[in-house]
Amino acid sequence: MDGDGICDSGLFYEDDISITITSEKKPYLPENYTASNLRITGYTVNFTPLENSPPVPSKQIYHDVILAPGSSVDMPIRVIDQGDKNDITSPLYYANLCTNSPDDCMYEYTVTVIIKAVEMLTGVKHLLTVGFPLHYFDLETDEDDDCI
User: Which end of the chain is more exposed for a tag (fewer CB within 10 A), N or C?
Assistant: First the structure.
């Protein structure tokens, strides 16, 4: 970065979040009931654009984690990766952020993460949904820039 608001290196940090997933036994089940392990098989990340933000394709990510009944796991979720920011064909390509106006260098989305899980003993499938706002923007100072 040389002060012109453009990342000259072309390398960026990934943008991840962490979601805590807890497997709990229902309180009304019989005492002799064997609770099942829960297998997380993957997740989908959906982007709903707001304002003038471009559409971004959904991502399907394979993940394999097993939770014992009554346990928790912090699961990393990759929302945006280096490829999203470096690939010229990506709607999140860093050089496209400020093409309309230098004062408007932000895209806004509602992100929905759908985590796919299955009870290993019964085969019952679950979809766990988490949503949050995403403000994707270009910072124009060297110390705050997303460049590595």
Answer: C
Q: Vertex 50, ends 136 and 133: CA angle to 5°?
A: 55
Phi/psi of residue 99, nearest 5 degrees: -75, -30
- Give CA–CA dist 6/139, Å, rounded: 9
pLDDT of residue 98: 65
- Evaluated on CA atoms 31, 68, 59, 91, the torsion sign reads positive
Given a contact cutoff of 8 angstroms between Cβ atoms, the answer to whether 112 and 79 are in contact is no
Identify the band that residue 24 occupies on the pLDDT scale cut at 50, 70 and 90.
Answer: confident
CA distance 18 to 76: 4
